[in-house]
Structure formats: C-alpha cells, structure tokens
C-alpha cells in the first residue's frame, strides 16, 4: 500500500506555491551559519533579529499583563512606571479573563475601538470598529481575504511585480490566478496605469475574471511611496473595473524622505467623495511587525474593511471564528501601537526618544545602502523612500548568465549565492519577487545596525567588483 | 448582531429542504463539498452543522435594504468562495450570538431576563470563566517579554528563582535574545528541543526536534495538514461523529469530503474499527480517495479516553489501509477517572514496534487545554512522523508563508511540555495549582454528569477526559413539532429555550454531528466550582418546565 502522503499525491497547489524569502538562499545561509560562518541576514524584514531593541513601554505593559498577580505586589513600582501599570489595568479590563482567554474572534472590542480612533486621527474620517478585525499578523489577514475572494483558477488577482511573495504564494495555494502588473523601475517603481489596463485586458482575454488588486504602499521589495495622484488613478481604476482594492500598508511608519509622506488608500478614497467613496471596496492591512516597532515575533495585525457588503463581512467573521481568536498579547501590542504614550505621560519622553532614534537611524541606513549600491559597478538602485528594503538592479554580464546556466541556477540566484559564500550577506534574489525578463535584482533589508553598514557595503562592493571582473568581457552586459 | 441571519437562514432553509431527503438516509455516508458554480452550495458538508445557523425568528429583516447599497460592488455573497459559504462552525454560531445579545440586554437593564448573567458553557475557554493561570508559566512569560528586568537585583524578590533561571535558559536559546523577531518557521529550535524532551518523558520514546512544527494553537496545524492532503472533493478524510467542527469546517474550506464514522454512544462513545472500515469501504466504492483518519483522544465533544488496545487496532488499521493518522491529543492532560490513562498514538505505535517509516502519524497539542487552559496565547505544535523528506520540505514551505507562530505561544508550549520538576523552587506551588484545577474539573464533571442523568429523558456518558459533557436528550414529539414550526433543529430549539430561560449557553449536538434522530448538546465543565450547584438547579428547573410543556 502506498503511503497516503507520497509526494505524487500531494495537493498540487501546495507544490506550486513558492516562497523565496525563506527559500534556497536562506537555507544555504542557515547551513553556513551552522558551519560557523558569520551570516548577515538581510533576507527578512526582521529588525529585532539584527539587534534593534524593542520599545520599552509596550514590553513593560505586556509583561505585566502576563503576570497580573504582580499588580498586588508592593514592589511592582520598582519595575514598572505608573503609566504602564495604568495601561495594564486598562487592557486587562478589556479582556474577559486576561491574556489566557480566547477573545472575540475579531479581536477584543475595546482594542478594535482604539484602532478605529487611530484611523480617524490619521485620515480625518471616522472608522467603524465592527469593520476592523485583529489578526495574528497581516499575512493571516491577507490569506483570509483572498480565501473569501478566490473561487478557482478563473479568478484573477492583480499583483504588482516585483511583489512580496506572500501574495503569489497564497494565490497559488488557493488555486487562483495571479495577474501581474509591472512597476516601472525607471519611474522610481511608480505604477503605470496603462500597463495595468493592458494586464487586465490580457487576463480577460484568457477568460480570467479580475476580482481584486493588491497595492503595497510603501513598496515591498521596491521601497517607493505611492503619490496621491497615483492612488487616485488606482481607485478610479478599481471603480471602473469593479475590482476590490487590497492595500498592504504595513510599512506606513517607515518613511525616509519628506516629499512623499505616507497617505492611506482609505483617506484618498474618502477624499474622492461619492460615488467612488461609497462603492470601491477596500481592505487595508496593518501590523505590529514593521514600523519602528518591528515586533515580528508577536504576530499582531489588523485589517479594516471599507464598503464591503455586511453579508460578506459576516462570512469573513465566520472564517475568523474557526481559528478561535488572534493571540491576545499581540492584540495588546496593537492597542499600544495605535495608542502610544502621550505628551505629559511618564513614559512619553523615553518612548519618543526610542522611536525617533530608530526611525532616524533607518533613514540614514537607507541612504548609506542605496548610495553604496549606486557606487558599484553594474549596479543601479532607486532610493528607498519607505519600507525596509533596497532592491538594486544587478546588470549581469552575459558570461555570468552563461555560468549560472551551466550551474543550473537562475542568474540572480547564482549571483546571490556567490555573494553569500564570499561575504556572508544573505539576500533574496529578485526572481523571488518577479522582475521583467532579462533583468536581475536582489533584495536586501536596510536593517543591519547603522555602525555595521559601511563595512557591509564595502564588503558588497569588493565582492561585486571581483564578480564583475571575473565575468565581464568587452561584449558589454545585459540591459533591460 | 446577525442582522442578516434571517435571509441567510432563508436560503439555508431552502437548501436544507433539498438536503433533507438524502440526509435522512444513514447510508448517505459521504458528504462532499461540491458545486463551485452555484450561488449557494448544493450540499453543505453535513446537514447537522446547519441547524444551528437555521432560522432566528427574532432577527430583524432590514438586511435587504442595507445590502442594496452594495449592489454594484464586486464581492457579493454569491461571488465569494463557495467553500467559505459551506463551512460552518457551530461553537461560535447562532446560539452564541443570541447569548451576546442577551448579555447586552442585561447591561442595559439587569432585570430584562430571568437571570442576571450569561454562563458560557459553549466553548472550552477556562480562563474566561475565572480559572487562574499557572503562576510559574506566567512568570517566565513576563520575564521573556521584558528581559530588561532580569538584570535587576530586585527581580529575585518578586519572581521565583526557577522562573528567572528558565527565562535565562529560554532567552539563551533565542538568537540575539530577540523575542520580538520572527523565528525559524517551525519554531525556535531550542524550544523544540525542550518539547521533545517532554514528549520523551511522556512516551518513553525519543522525539526529534525536526519533527516539531510550532503553531498558533492546534487549529492552524490541522489546517496545514488538510491543505496538504486535500486535492479535490474526491479526497476524503475519516472523521468521528460527533466531532469537533474544526474538522468539518477545515475540510469544507479546502474542498474535500468528510467521511464520517460514528462513535457508539451505548459503549461510552467507543470507536469500533470494523465500523470505520465499513465507512472507508463505502467511501472508496463511491470513488473517494480516503487519505487520513482523524481521532480525537480524549474525545471532543464526547469526553471518552481510548483504551490502549483500541489504539493499537487503530494504528494497525491506518497502517494497513495507507491512511495518515491525525491524532488530536490536545486534551492529553485532562483525564478525570482513575481507570483511564492517556497514551499518545506515537507511544502506542512505537510500542507495537512500528518505526518512523511504518506509519504516517501527526499528533496535535495545544496550550489552550490541559490544566493550563491558556487559550488566548495561541500556542501549540504538531509532531509529524513517517513523512518523506520531500513532504517535510513542503510542510516547511507552507509554514514559512506565514513566517512563524507567535513567540509567547512558542515559549508557553515549551513550558507546558516541561513544567517544574521535583526540587525546583516552584515545584510545590506548581503541582498544587495543577492538581487543584484537575481535581476540581473532575468533581465538576461528576456533579454535572449526575445532575444530567437525573433528568427525565436525559442520558449522559461520563466525561473520562477533555472538558465536555455531551448528554443525549430524548425530546418529546411535541417539542420536535414545535421546533419544526419555527424551522429550527430540535436540539437547537432546546438550547435556545435553555439559554432564554437560564442564561446558560450550550452548543446543540447538530453542530458536532450525531446519529440521525438523536439529539444532544455539548456543555463544558468549566464554570467555577462554586457556581456548579446554581447551574444544576437552573438546568433542572428548566428541563422540568420544558418537559411539562411538551411531554407527549
């Protein structure tokens, strides 16, 4: 009798799904690490793993929520400031049984209210807590929403290329069709509406119903901030084409320039007024994993639904209820993120100092990194306006492409593996995110510590010089 | 709440009528989720799961008006994934929504109902009913969440020495001591080592940390296995009936077929392998490729603890039939009778001499159950054995799409599998807390079981383990007629009446599946012990009045 789970009879959608961020490069890097090589993991946006310290205040609050019996200890004040203690009492009162009880499947109502108030402060338009669902990280939210939308291979989801592979992986797991639209590298990874229309037309000619469009703003892996004009075009497009907009806005705190601040898709939608503001369906995602929080290990996030039919909201609630509830400590992190210490609170100065320090340092690192890449031979890189990544284009010489072929590797994988072996820098090849044919990239986070950054860029430059020296001849190199 | 229940119910009712015929037949043993084109599913997974979502006569019906605002939007109820529509999850279904509504009423006017509070016996959520967390576990979690205090001298004054030591150990296992970082997609390696030492202490057989996948509670692990196994509606998963609706819901979401096998109520919810085999053969004869067998031990909602000899038969059966054994063992610490003991399926299989490549076995464990009952933490793991390396790679890939499970839950999973030992400073207080909870749960189970058995027309098997009683109620024909006239399943009708009269929330048996024509409800044993007498008397009074009203 053959085993039930032989590879041949595994779900095909599972086999098809790809997730490069933890793929071949990461596995090789882990092996090298085990062998004792020093690895600089820049493959995942995981700030604390690279030494970023957690913000003190939220950790104080959650720690004390874990051990509420300490509230009765006369010495509790030695460890926790009064405003943290007050917050603990506040959050415990929002739960029914502390951190150890399942909450409402959509998250604690009191915290959803805090999220709604945050959204209103941010956008200037009221938000309804009933349409906010807390999740165990943004990824879970994306999966739930895509699960509700995708019925089969004839349902298409518009996804930017390059994209964060969560989208391609989830769409293939659910058996839907990814409809790519290309971001324009020469226009600072802006969205070209003409190209978008072309993609839709092509998908439709293949019998695909385009049901939703994903935007990642600020961009992952591309780091651009979408302009208000661009967002308006997108919303008009969604309106005309009857497409749900999925706004991945998890990097909204990570902005490294002043010309293009983050603006939420929801605010632009509301600004546009009726009929568009009443009709375009929008789901916006947020998380505690990014920003200056970087609390990846907590798995906390939320999504907010705008203009989604109440019956569909009910169905999404049902799906949430099968997983019982998101983890409660992360819900509290989310509450604290949207409602942090205010001026005048005991912990305000420290909180402010810590968060400013992180953001300012990230801004400096974004510059060091993109400048560093642009000083390298055959490397060009748009400035990282936001998010946590640089996505330089590597112009690989034909000989290198040939060598990759001979080694049975995709050219950018070949390059990234060589980079890893030579320098310990663990990146993700551009092919994991999608790129135009014949063009090669890599993604690296801007997260290594600021003081390590110059050395890392030097070591990259040295490797790249040697690589180019080895493979470049006088026939020139690949161009887009 | 549930403004739209009425019209949803309408369609479901129409849908139930279509199904009624086929489901009255006990021979209709395979229910496949099919029909990707119809606005409403032709065949939901099991009719039984629909009854709790059936008509709510009190629901307002303004829904059409408000829904028309959405007439031009792309995602309509008939254009969402039909698998989403099909799946049902009764533990948080209609009765719970009614309960929440009553609770709101009481907030506004404490005299609005003949009771002053709602008692949630619908869900295994112990700490929401006042159970206190285990101190040692929480000390360690607090220290790991805020390691800055570990370096303070005063910390020793308010935290136990072994919690401090354990927190240091755990932090040292985490690269960079970063509890705020994503971990390895299977979970932090050091914590998996700890879990394996706990499994080994439990089973007497070694466990491999590479076999452990830490997850946000057991549910995502179950989903992952269903996702791997189910390719289409032609793939079947054998599930006990009654079952915990996570299984039916997950199978429906992944578009597979639930192949039911019935537990025998007359023999204390016994699992008869010959019956399972019959169901397997019936399914196969219909072209269903049966891929796995789900066993819940201790049982949910049925509370039975399998005998080792029975488990051996199950292991042989899975081995001979080429089935993956999916062992839901989340209640392994919840055993209430001296004549029963928990044995993990892995231990049973290894004791029989079966090694890694002889049988494919997945064991699910959770921090939400046991004496700890840490539901809000969403911690858990699955131990997978007997899978080829290329399958393991696929599992790893699936785990990595969601990056990792939450770190606090991971740490807690390691703690429950490796609690304080003799000689540790917290050992005595830890065992006292644990034993107090377990012995109180045993007393509560017995009191409720006796009370239920004393009611007219009610029989209830003992809860040998887990957290639930699943009494059978012989409803008078008059009551069944009355239920029909309000288009409700008879057990849902009973549960609703019980809730309206007493504030006690239970889940109708139809949410779990039951032999057609029998009626049950599931009631947790979790209200605090001092509340049990009041619950018993309310339940008794209600049942008497109900029978007086409907006795034939």
Automatic annotation (TrEMBL), chain A:
Pfam family, any one: Aminotran_1_2
Domain Aminotransferase class I/classII large: 84-448
Molecular function as annotated in GO: alanine-glyoxylate transaminase activity; glycine:2-oxoglutarate aminotransferase activity; L-alanine:2-oxoglutarate aminotransferase activity
InterPro entries: ALAT1/2-like, Aminotransferase_I/II_large, PyrdxlP-dep_Trfase, PyrdxlP-dep_Trfase_major, PyrdxlP-dep_Trfase_small
Superkingdom per UniProt: Eukaryota
Keywords associated with the record: Aminotransferase, Pyridoxal phosphate, Transferase
Cofactor(s) recorded in Swiss-Prot or TrEMBL: pyridoxal 5'-phosphate
Protein name: Glutamate--glyoxylate aminotransferase 2
Organism field: Salvia divinorum (Maria pastora)
TrEMBL record, chain B:
Similarity comment text for this entry: Belongs to the class-I pyridoxal-phosphate-dependent aminotransferase family. Alanine aminotransferase subfamily.
EC id: 2.6.1.2
Protein name as catalogued: alanine transaminase
Keywords: Aminotransferase, Pyridoxal phosphate, Transferase
Signal peptide: none
Involved pathway(s): Amino-acid degradation; L-alanine degradation via transaminase pathway; pyruvate from L-alanine: step 1/1; Photosynthesis; C4 acid pathway
Domain Aminotransferase class I/classII large: 176-528
Quaternary structure, from the entry: Homodimer.
TM segment ranges: none
Record has Transferase as a keyword: yes
Species this chain originates from: Salvia divinorum
Pfam families the UniProt entry points to: Aminotran_1_2 (PF00155)
UniProt cross-references to CDD domains, sorted A to Z: AAT_like
Cofactor(s) in the UniProt record: pyridoxal 5'-phosphate
InterPro entries found in the cross-reference section: ALAT1/2-like, Aminotransferase_I/II_large, PyrdxlP-dep_Trfase, PyrdxlP-dep_Trfase_major, PyrdxlP-dep_Trfase_small
Main EC class the enzyme belongs to: transferase
MF GO annotations: L-alanine:2-oxoglutarate aminotransferase activity
């Amino acid at each position: 009798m053959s085993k039930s789970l032989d590879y041949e009879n595994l779900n095909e959608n599972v086999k098809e799904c790809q997730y490069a961020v933890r793929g071949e490069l990461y596995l090789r890097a882990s092996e090298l690490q085990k062998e004792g090589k020093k690895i600089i993991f820049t493959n995942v946006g995981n700030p604390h793993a690279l030494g970023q310290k957690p913000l003190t205040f939220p950790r104080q609050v959650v720690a004390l929520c874990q051990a509420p019996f300490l509230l009765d200890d006369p010495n509790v004040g030695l460890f926790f400031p009064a405003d943290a203690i007050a917050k603990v009492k506040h959050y415990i009162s929002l739960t029914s049984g502390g951190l150890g009880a399942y909450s409402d499947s959509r998250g604690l109502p009191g915290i959803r209210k805090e999220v709604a108030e945050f959204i209103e402060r941010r956008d200037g338009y009221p938000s309804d807590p009933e349409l906010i669902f807390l999740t165990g990280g943004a990824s879970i939210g994306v999966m739930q929403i895509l699960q509700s939308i995708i019925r089969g291979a004839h349902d298409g989801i518009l996804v930017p290329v390059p994209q964060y592979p969560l989208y391609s992986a989830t769409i293939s797991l659910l058996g839907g069709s990814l409809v790519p639209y290309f971001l324009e590298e020469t226009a600072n990874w802006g969205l070209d509406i003409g190209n978008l229309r072309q993609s839709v037309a092509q998908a439709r000619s293949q019998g695909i119903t385009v049901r939703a469009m994903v935007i990642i703003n600020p961009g992952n892996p591309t780091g651009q901030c979408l302009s208000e004009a661009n967002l308006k075009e997108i919303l008009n497009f969604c309106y005309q084409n009857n497409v749900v907009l999925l706004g991945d806005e998890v990097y909204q705190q990570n902005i490294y320039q002043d010309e293009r601040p983050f603006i939420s898709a929801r605010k632009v939608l509301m600004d546009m007024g009726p009929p568009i503001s009443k009709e375009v369906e929008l789901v916006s995602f947020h998380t505690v994993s990014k920003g200056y929080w970087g609390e990846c290990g907590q798995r906390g996030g939320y999504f907010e639904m705008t203009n989604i039919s109440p019956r569909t909201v009910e169905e999404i609630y049902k799906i949430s209820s099968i997983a019982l509830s998101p983890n409660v400590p992360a819900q509290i992190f989310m509450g604290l993120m949207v409602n942090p210490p205010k001026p005048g609170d005991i912990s305000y100065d420290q909180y402010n100092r810590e968060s400013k320090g992180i953001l300012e340092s990230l801004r400096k690192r974004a510059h060091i990194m993109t400048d560093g890449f642009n000083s390298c031979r055959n490397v060009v890189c748009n400035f990282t306006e936001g998010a946590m990544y640089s996505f330089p284009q590597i112009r690989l010489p034909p000989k290198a492409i040939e060598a990759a072929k001979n080694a049975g590797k995709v050219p950018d994988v070949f390059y990234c593996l060589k980079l890893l072996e030579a320098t310990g820098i663990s990146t993700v090849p551009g092919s994991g995110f999608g790129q135009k044919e014949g063009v090669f990239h890599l993604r690296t986070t801007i997260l290594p510590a600021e003081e390590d950054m110059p050395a890392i860029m030097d070591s990259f430059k040295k490797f790249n010089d040697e690589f180019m020296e080895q493979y470049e001849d006088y026939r020139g190199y690949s161009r887009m | 709440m549930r403004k739209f229940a009425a019209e949803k119910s309408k369609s479901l009712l129409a849908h139930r009528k279509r199904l009624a015929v086929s489901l009255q037949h006990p021979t209709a043993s395979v229910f496949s989720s099919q029909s990707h084109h119809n606005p409403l599913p032709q065949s939901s997974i099991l009719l039984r799961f629909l009854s709790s979502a059936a008509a709510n006569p009190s629901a307002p019906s303004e829904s059409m008006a408000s829904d028309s605002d959405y007439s031009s939007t792309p995602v309509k109820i008939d254009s969402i994934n039909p698998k989403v529509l099909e799946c049902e999850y009764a533990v948080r279904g209609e009765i719970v929504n009614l309960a929440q509504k009553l609770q709101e009423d009481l907030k506004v006017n404490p005299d609005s109902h003949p009771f002053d509070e709602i008692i949630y016996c619908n869900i295994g959520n112990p700490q929401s009913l006042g159970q206190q967390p285990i101190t040692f576990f929480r000390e360690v979690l607090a220290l790991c969440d805020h390691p800055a205090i570990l370096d303070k001298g005063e910390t020793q004054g308010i935290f136990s020495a072994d919690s401090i030591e354990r927190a240091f150990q755990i932090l040292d296992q985490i690269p960079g001591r970063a509890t705020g970082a994503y971990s390895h997609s299977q979970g932090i390696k050091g914590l998996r080592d700890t879990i394996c030492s706990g499994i080994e202490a439990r089973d007497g057989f070694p466990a491999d940390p590479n076999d452990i996948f830490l997850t946000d509670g057991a549910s995502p692990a179950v989903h992952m296995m269903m996702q791997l196994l189910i390719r289409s509606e032609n793939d079947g998963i054998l599930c006990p009936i009654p079952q915990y609706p996570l299984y039916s819901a997950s199978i429906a979401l992944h578009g597979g077929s639930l192949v039911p096998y019935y537990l025998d109520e007359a023999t204390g919810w016994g699992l008869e392998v010959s019956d399972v085999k019959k169901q397997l053969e019936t399914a196969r004869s219909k072209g269903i490729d049966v891929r796995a067998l789900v066993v819940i031990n201790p049982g949910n909602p049925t509370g039975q603890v399998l005998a080792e000899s029975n488990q051996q038969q199950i292991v042989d059966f899975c081995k001979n039939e080429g089935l993956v054994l999916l062992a839901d063992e989340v209640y392994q610490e919840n055993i209430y009778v001296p004549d029963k003991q928990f044995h993990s399926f892995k231990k049973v299989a290894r004791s029989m001499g079966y090694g890694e490549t002889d049988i494919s076995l997945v064991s699910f464990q959770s921090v939400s159950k046991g004496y700890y009952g840490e539901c809000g933490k969403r911690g858990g793991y699955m131990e997978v054995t007997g899978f080829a390396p290329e399958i393991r790679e696929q599992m790893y890939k699936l785990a990595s799409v969601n990056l990792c499970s939450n770190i606090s839950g991971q740490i807690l999973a390691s703690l429950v599998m490796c609690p304080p030992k003799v000689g540790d400073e917290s050992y005595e207080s830890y065992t006292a807390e644990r034993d107090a909870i377990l012995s109180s749960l045993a007393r509560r189970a017995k009191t409720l079981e006796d009370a239920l058995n004393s009611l007219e027309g009610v029989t209830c098997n003992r809860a040998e383990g887990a957290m639930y009683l699943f009494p059978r109620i012989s409803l008078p024909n008059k009551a069944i007629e009355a239920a029909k006239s309000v288009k409700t399943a008879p057990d849902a009708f009973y549960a609703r009446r019980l809730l309206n009269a007493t504030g006690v929330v239970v889940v109708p048996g139809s949410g779990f599946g039951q032999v057609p024509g029998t009626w049950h409800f599931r009631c947790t044993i979790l209200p605090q012990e001092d509340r049990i007498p009041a619950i018993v008397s309310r339940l008794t009074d209600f049942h008497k009045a109900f029978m007086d009203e409907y006795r034939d």
